[in-house]
Design a protein that fits this description.
Layout lengths: L7 E5 L3 H13 L3 E5 L2 H10 L5 E5 L7 H9 L2 H4 L3 E5 L4 H5 L6 E4 L4 H12 L5
Parallel strand pairs: 1-2, 1-3, 3-4, 4-5
Helix pairs in contact: 2-3
Length: 128
């Protein structure tokens, strides 16, 4: 549960193992994490809770993929303002062609140290 004013990350990832590992990694680094299995679940979360500081978004998911999720969030100014880091198995060429307005992109397998540096850039130092 996030405390008002503290940075929180919304992790959207359909792969259970990756979602669990990333959640644990981020929490061990001192960040608060909420997780969703797909874009639809994440959109429902965002509409019922205070906005997170940052969203980590997988693109290839069932039900509502990351592309559709991002298109929906870009329609709502409050949600569009949340920085999004894309984590994807898609090739680097995708970055030049996309219109998702992401703050950063990471290709899987993820470079965890780079990812954590980027998260800190948006969230500040972790909560202790």
């Amino acid at each position: 549960m996030s405390v008002a004013g503290e940075p929180q990350i919304l992790l959207i990832e359909d792969d259970t193992d990756i979602r669990q590992s990333l959640s644990e990694l981020l929490e061990d680094a001192g960040f608060r994490v909420a997780a969703a299995e797909d874009g639809l679940q994440a959109l429902q979360y965002l509409r019922k809770n205070p906005p997170p500081t940052l969203i980590l978004l997988d693109l290839l998911m069932p039900f509502m993929d990351g592309f559709e999720f991002r298109r929906e969030t870009l329609k709502e100014p409050k949600l569009a303002a949340i920085p999004v880091i894309i984590t994807t198995a898609l090739s680097a060429e995708f970055r030049a062609e996309n219109t998702l307005r992401a703050a950063a992109y990471f290709t899987k397998p993820l470079d965890i140290h780079s990812l954590l540096r980027t998260v800190r850039k948006f969230c500040g130092p972790p909560v202790t």
